[in-house]
From TrEMBL:
It is found in: Zymogen granule lumen. This is Carboxypeptidase B. SMART domains: Zn_pept. It catalyses: Preferential release of a C-terminal lysine or arginine amino acid. PANTHER family: CARBOXYPEPTIDASE B, PROTEASE FAMILY M14 CARBOXYPEPTIDASE A,B. It holds the Pfam family Peptidase_M14. Its cofactor is Zn(2+). Belongs to the peptidase M14 family.
Amino acid sequence: NMRILLVFGLVAVALADITHFEGEKVFRLKPVLDEHVTVIKNLAESIELDFWSPESEKQVSIDIDVDIRVHAQYLDLMYTTLDQSGMDYEILIEDLQAAIDGQADKEPSSRAHSYTKYNTWAQIQSWIASISTSNTELISREVIGNTYEGRPMTVLKLGRKSSFAKPAIFMDCGIHAREWISPAFCQWFVKEALATYGSNAQMTSLLNQMDVYVLPVFNIDGYEYTHTSNRMWRKTRSKSSGTSCVGADPNRNFDAGWCTLGASSNPCSDTFCGYSPESEIEVKNVANFIRRNKGIIKAYLTIHSYSQLLLFPYSYTYNLAAHHSELLKVAEGASAALRSLYGTRYTSGPGATTIYPAAGGSDDWAYDLGVKYSYTFELRDTGRYGFLLPESQIKPTCEETMLAVKYIAAHVQKNLY
């Protein structure tokens, strides 16, 4: 009997590590007065709130919808505070655990890699291994370093083999762990590029003349953690002496106005900027790769969710980028291309004014390094599901996003510098 108890004990320990979200709700608050903003900031100080949009209480201002996840034990306090403040609000997600459980389609997955499911890191890793040997004329892979927990960061290089270095586009997905639609898009992009080369004129021309580097998951440790322990995890998983709080926000850890606006120096914050620029090994690995190849990299695309935005520099300052008008024109063209398929509306503009200021982002850093066409996508949706976009939306989201990415790529190809 001791053995049976031991087994049950181990199962219990394993289950205890999984965060559950029963009874938790996601609110959308609508602050229209300074007092409302103060109420939200005071709440954030007194109870634990998970900011979905904007990314922290620092970025809350009048007339920005504020989406926050609230623990079940704080709901009474939340309702009382909101009613007293007179602030308008709605409930976006009635029961978070039910929404998490409802993300996956009920269809069992076929043996082959599924592009319409949210794949685990193990599934993505075996996909990387098999697809990179599927068509060696068009695809190769390179490990650019390991994550904090020792997982290999593999960049896929798409493009027709050539004897000289071709101009390139770099794209990454999954900087923030819980934004699952993002890695799904990188996988979709690779599949589409390989499948349509030779039949689609634009993709053929792109891969003949340029290379596309794809990092399918940037924050692998965090992504794995969202699958095994806490679906709502955002940061890396690095540990540091002096605090029990884990990880930093990789998209606040780049050397671009580091830790000034819209980032936190508190290691427990979801927008913690890290202990120094590139303190996170994942950020250092990507930055080193882009620096090594900065002579050929002409565009940088980073895929996030959610909000339906196409952003470009700057986010760490309100100043406009030197190439502002061209970047805006391309973003608007890409957004129109995206909308043409399913009518999904995107807003485009510089990060700081279009959503909120945030320092240390990868797009600003790449732009300042000299990569002119630097864009951040915030994919579907606008908050109905937030980070929990159902698998049934993977295909339409990826199809429409492809149109925008191809639009940007075509512009870059025609305007090499």
